[in-house]
Design a protein that fits this description.
It is built from two helices and twelve strands, in the order ββαββαββββββββ. It has 180 residues and is α+β, with helices and mostly antiparallel strands.
Amino acid sequence: MASQNNATLVANSLFHTGFMPDAIEVNRQIMEAYLLLGESDFLKRTHFFGGRYENLYLQREHIPAIGIVLQQAEKYAGTILEKLPSQLRSGFWVNNMGPNSVTTEHNHDENDELLSGVYYVQVPRNSGDLNIIDQNRRTLITPAAGMFVFFAPSVLHSVDINNSGERRISIGMNFGPGMR
C-alpha cells in the first residue's frame, strides 16, 4: 500500500485508496480549527441515528485546512473519473463518531454523484473499520489518519462500532459533474 508521504492511488475492484501528503500537519490544523467551532458554525446536521447526527455540514472557511484536503481529493477524483478536477463539483461534511457509535449501512446514490469518498482526520485505535459491501461480500478497511477511500456512490458501506474511548473524525465527500 502507498505510504503516507506520497500521493499514489491504489485501486481495488470496489474502491481506491490514497494518502494525503503532509497529513500530520494538515490534520493538526483541521483538529485545531474543529475544536474551536460552536454549535452555530454548522449549517445543518443530517442522518440522526443512535443519538447523534452522522453528517455535520459547514463552510470550508470555518476550517481552512479542509480546502487542502478537498484539493487533493479532487485530484484523486479526477484521476479515478478521468476528468479534470475543474469538471467536478464537490460537497463535504464532517462525521464525528464518538465511542460506541456506528454508521449504518447506506450508499450515496441519491442525486447525480459520480464518486463518493472519505478522508480520515483522527482515527483512534479500534474506532471502527469501514465496511465496503458488494452483494454478500464485505471488505473491511482499517482506516488511518491521512487516508482517503473512494468508491462508487451506489456501493453500500457502513462503519463498525467505535470501541475506542475517543472520537473518530472523518470528512465525507461526494463528487458530481459540473463547474464549482
